[in-house]
Fold this protein.
Amino acid sequence: MPSETLWEIAKAEVEKRSSNGSESDGVEIGEKSVFFIGSKNGGKTTIILRCLDRDEPPKPTLALEYTYGRKAKGHNIPKDIAHFWELGGGTSLLDLISVPITSDTLRTFSIVLVLDLSKPNDLWPTMENLLQATKSHVNKVIMKLGKKNSKASSEMRQKIWSNMQKDHPDREIIDPFPIPLVIIGSKYDIFQDFDSEKRKVICKTLRFVAHYYGASLMFTSKSEALLLKIRGVINQLAFGIDKSKSICVDQNKPLFITAGLDSLNQIGSPPVPDNDIGKLHARSPMELWKKVYERLFPPKNTNTLKDIKDPARDPQYAESEVDEMRIQKDQLQISTLTNLENTKIDAWCLSR
């Protein structure tokens, strides 16, 4: 049988790529995006720097920050590119979630939610607000994408079930997040000294939330061994490296549960007496777990959970000359608006 010509090989490669949808739907090969959201001062920047092998001290994140990394696939092969986005300010800048997540980037996008385990009273509100805002925006983008490319939109909706086996007993109960999601509990070194009952409630609650959303869950700290495991998970999202199949569900150890490997049977029921469950009046499993969690860890005053909305007014970013010019600009705008209103009033009076 005659060997294939160079033209035949090239033609076969193009047809192969087209059948995979990599060219027909506009997805750029070897480019992925990872969006870090989560608790303020929760360690997001530290994790990103560790994944990129950058030996530099983390700096406070102002609003929305971007960096990237490259990874070689082989000799004379273009490097894969990973785009890393980080949302600062905890839950105070939810509007910025829409900036990096667009119909052009969505199909190669992943979310990493970093939660500060040392602040359990802030954990649920932070998690709930960020996931709801992100999910709402992603669903809007998927709908927009569906109007332009129904095939791509349909593939995305099917892909979210890829981590869950078809015969998994919880398939009819869970509601997978629309794009890949990893939940990381940071500052485990502080968390491990908590009372055992508190650790149990936090671990079981996060396991339920992660399983419900079809997400991976893992704990980390400054420990080099834990950071290496987290790095492996992030590299899987960013560069498509093989996913780890290891699992640890022992609440006395750092949790490490890959998406699809947990189950409601293993997690168990919410840690509350059976005769109290009916008194909670929950309308859904998620609401039930929330009520049980907040009985032990009531959220702080909502006003204290909201950080400064406008980073330009945050004292830690004060710049005397810039701030003075900003004040002058604000005063000028107020003066202009006042004059405009006075002009309208005068005009109205003359017309009477």
